[in-house]
Amino acid sequence: MTRAIDQVGLLELAKVLGVSYQAVRKFERTGCPPRRVLDVVRATSGEVTPFELSPEMYPDPDWLPPDLQAQKHHAA
Description:
This protein is mainly α. It has one domain: lambda repressor-like DNA-binding domains (434 Repressor (Amino-terminal Domain)). 61% of the residues lie in helices and 0% in strands. The protein is globular, with a radius of gyration of 12 Å. It starts with a helix and ends with a helix. 26% of the residues are buried.
């Protein structure tokens, strides 16, 4: 979560997730809730990966949601 906060900004990340900045700080301490993982990944344009936030749910370190895979492929 710290990298996502550093990349997007605390207030912007909170806004994108639809939560308070205090909730984002809590996620930073306790871990990203499973239902928020892909929202955080999308907020960072895939720079923070699902594996990084929840390796038990997303064991492939290279996996990204299909919409972000397409963006990364076109950007390359």
